[in-house]
Design goal:
The chain is of the alpha/beta class and about 475 residues long. The chain has a domain of about 120 residues. Helices cover about 30% and strands about 20% of the residues. A hairpin with an 8-residue loop joins strand 12 and strand 13.
C-alpha cells in the first residue's frame, strides 16, 4: 500500500456513510459498501475506545478501510468484500511492509478478532510447567489402554510370490529370520496408541527393510510392516505383512529398534531420562509399590548420560525448553524462540498463520522429545547426504532437513513445518521453521522419548502382556 494515497496525515474517525463506492474496478456499478465497514468501526470503538482510528484508504487500485492502533507501528487494511470472503484483511508491521500477513474473514466480528493479536502483541512468556497430577492421570490412562491389548491379535499375512521374487538371497534370509523371531507381545505393546492407549487407527509401522534386485516401485522399498485397523469399529488386530513403502515418508520406523518387535535386549540408552521425579504425586505412587521394568530383564541404569537426559526432561516439564535442548547442543531459530513464548511472528508461507495453536503444538512436541537423540539424527542424515552426493558427479551436498511435525491450519501443498537441521557436516543441530511440499519426515523413534521413560519417571506401572505365538494367515491364535 502507498501511504501517500491515503489522503491527509491526520487520524480520522470514520463517519456513517463515509463509504459509497458506486463502481468496481471494471467500471460495473455495484451496491454501496456502507454497513460492513461501519460495523467494524463500531465494534472497535465499543470494545477498545480511543485505541483505533479508521478512515477510507487505497491499496494499489483497491479501496477499503485503513485501521491504525495508537502506539503501534504499521497499519491494517480491510479490503472490500469479495466473492470468497466477507472481508480480506492485511496486517502490516510497518508502513513500507510489502509482505503483510493476510487473512480472509467472514464477518466484522472475525476482522476485529484477527486485528487484536496484531494490535496488542503478547509479551514473551515462559511456557507453564506441567501439572504433575494431570500428567500422572494421562499416563495412567494410556497404561490402562495398553493393558487391555492383551486380547489384540497379531497375525502374519503370507507374502505374495511376486514380492518374494524381488528379494535378493540376503534379503530373503533376513526376511525368514525376522518372521521366525517376531514377538507379538512386543508389537502389540509398542504399537502406536491414541490418548486412551488404544491401537492408533490407519497406522503402519515399518519393522525392517530388505534388499531387492529391483525396486518394487518408484522411491519404494520392500518392507516388513505391522498394520493396524482402519476404523474403531473394525476388529482390533495387527497384521504383519511384506509390503512396499516409501521409507522416508514413514512416521513409525523400528528397523533400528529391534527390541520393539523381537525378543532382543534393549540397550541402556533406551531408558535414559528415566530417573524418578520427586514430586508428591509420584512419591505416593512409589509407596504403593515400585513399577515393573519396561521389558523383561531390563532395568534402567544410572549413568552420567542418563542423569543429563533426566535433567533435560525435567527442564522440559518445567517450561525451560531451550535450556533442556541446550544441554545437548540443540538451539531454536529466532522465530521459534518467539513462537515458544507466545509472540507473533511473520507468516512463513501464504496460508500459514502462526497463532496460539502453533505455540501449543511447538511446546507439546518439544516436551515429548528426547533432546539427546536430536544431534545423532542430524549427524546420521548428514552422513547419508554425503554418501548420496558422492554417488554421482555434479550432486551438491545439502544440509540436513528433517521434518518433525506440520503446523496446523494450512491448506496449500507447501506447508510450514518444525524442522531439525544442522550444518552440512552434521554439526550445530538446530530447530527451525521451513516450508516444504515433501512428505519425508524424521521418524518418531529418532526424536521422541520412549513411553517407558515417562512411566518410570512418574511411577506408573508398565503394562506387561503375556507371551503368545504369532498366528498364520487369518486364524486367531489360541
Amino acid at each position: 500500500m502507498n501511504p501517500s494515497g491515503r489522503g491527509g496525515g491526520d487520524e480520522l474517525e470514520l463517519r456513517r456513510g463515509e463509504f459509497s463506492f458506486p463502481h468496481d474496478l471494471t467500471g460495473q456499478r455495484v451496491r454501496p459498501m456502507k454497513k460492513p465497514f461501519e460495523q467494524i468501526v463500531h465494534l472497535l470503538s465499543q470494545q477498545f475506545p480511543g485505541r483505533f482510528s479508521c478512515k477510507p484508504g487505497k491499496s494499489g487500485l483497491a479501496r477499503g478501510l485503513e485501521v491504525r492502533c495508537r502506539g503501534r507501528a504499521g497499519y491494517a487494511f480491510v479490503f472490500l468484500p469479495s466473492q470468497c470472503w466477507d472481508f480480506l484483511l492485511s496486517l502490516h508491521e510497518q508502513d513500507d511492509d510489502e509482505n503483510p500477513e493476510v487473512w480472509g474473514a467472514n464477518g466484522a466480528e472475525e476482522v476485529v478478532q484477527r486485528l487484536q493479536p496484531w494490535a496488542f502483541p503478547s509479551r514473551w512468556t515462559l511456557p507453564p510447567p506441567i501439572d504433575p497430577a494431570e500428567e500422572k492421570r494421562r499416563l495412567e490412562r494410556i497404561a490402562q489402554g495398553l493393558r487391555e491389548r492383551e486380547d489384540v491379535e497379531c497375525f502374519k499375512v503370507e507374502p505374495k510370490a511376486a514380492s518374494l521374487r524381488l528379494l535378493t538371497g540376503a534379503g530373503r534370509r533376513q526376511l525368514d529370520h525376522d518372521l521366525a523371531s517376531l514377538s507379538p507381545e512386543r508389537i502389540a505393546l509398542h504399537f502406536p496408541w491414541d490418548p486412551a492407549g488404544r491401537l492408533a487407527l490407519s497406522t503402519t509401522v515399518l519393522l525392517n527393510v530388505y534388499e531387492t534386485t529391483t525396486p518394487p516401485g518408484k522411491d519404494r522399498d520392500l518392507c516388513l510392516a505391522a498394520v493396524g485397523p482402519q476404523r474403531r469399529g473394525d476388529e482390533q488386530r495387527l497384521a504383519v505383512r511384506l509390503t512396499d513403502l516409501i521409507v522416508v515418508n514413514q512416521t513409525h520406523r523400528w528397523e533400528r529398534f529391534p527390541w520393539s518387535w523381537q525378543d532382543v535386549e534393549a540397550p541402556p540408552s533406551e531408558f535414559w531420562g528415566a530417573e524418578p521425579v520427586s514430586d508428591s504425586v509420584t512419591k505416593q505412587a512409589r509407596r504403593n509399590g515400585a513399577p515393573r521394568a519396561p521389558l523383561p530383564g531390563c532395568q534402567p541404569q544410572s549413568t552420567a548420560e542418563g542423569r543429563r537426559a533426566s535433567r533435560s526432561v525435567r527442564l522440559l516439564e518445567e517450561g525451560h525448553i531451550e535450556e533442556a535442548l541446550a544441554l545437548f547442543g540443540v538451539s531454536l531459530s529466532p522465530d521459534l524462540h518467539r513462537l515458544l513464548g507466545g509472540e507473533r511472528i511473520q507468516p512463513p508461507a501464504c496460508c500459514a498463520h502462526p497463532d496460539a495453536s502453533w505455540t501449543n503444538l511447538l511446546v507439546g512436541t518439544l516436551r515429548q522429545s528426547a533432546p539427546w537423540l536430536l544431534p545423532r539424527a542430524v549427524l546420521d542424515e548428514a552422513e547419508r547426504l554425503g554418501r548420496w552426493a558422492a554417488q554421482k558427479q555434479g550432486r551438491r551436498r545439502r544440509s540436513p532437513d528433517l521434518k518433525l511435525v506440520i503446523f496446523p491450519g494450512q491448506r496449500h501443498q507447501r506447508k510450514a513445518s518444525l524442522t531439525l537441521t544442522g550444518d552440512e557436516d552434521g554439526q550445530n543441530p538446530r530447530l527451525v521453521i521451513e516450508t516444504t511440499a515433501s512428505n519425508a519426515r524424521l521418524p518418531d523413534t529418532a526424536w521422541k522419548r520412549p513411553l517407558a521413560v515417562d512411566f518410570l519417571r512418574r511411577g506408573v506401572d508398565f503394562p506387561m502382556i503375556p507371551s503368545r505365538s504369532v498366528g498364520a494367515g487369518n486364524r486367531r491364535p489360541r
